Please model this.
Amino acid sequence: MSPSIDNLRGLYVITDDHLTPGDKMLPAVSAAIHGGARLVQYRDKSLDWPGRARQARDLLRLCHDHEVPLIINDDVELAVAIGADGVHLGDKDMVLNEARVRLGPRAIIGVSCYDSLDLAVRAAHAGADYVAFGSFFASPSKPQAVRALPSLLESARTTLNVPICAIGGITPENGAALIKAGAHMLAVISGIFAQQDFTTAARRYAQLFS
Model:
């Protein structure tokens, strides 16, 4: 059974070509799902297109075995080619309405909105299924990322009618405040995949939503 948009709550894990390279990716993501990850994003900037397609197909099978959606970072054509559940777009990627035409009405499309509520409002009006804000804290994955304030989540929660994702330097210790401020999802890379035990690390985040 294909996962649905109803899964847009909870822990959202993002793969990383340095932390989850090659044949380490599938067991790492499997462990995170067993710990409570509700959504997975495939993000790789190192492999060529055939390599990414092969890896993403394997990951899609794993995710669907657990009824967890797989979102592809930045690459609409890869998402189309493997039949992924959706795509996450940044400010330099294909515009949302073009992605919707390519992926179809049931695809999950998320949009990075950084520290801009106006950008999020436009994305929601254009049909985004979720919006992402951040970085909220210093992030080892994107040290130069724009910083957002937790108060942005409060404003977004009262303004938007789509799920809100927080990203950037989020830990089990600081994540609860972001959920309280309005985040429906916490997107995490190193907080899971730079840890010794991926399942235990994921469980710590998942418990914040209980």
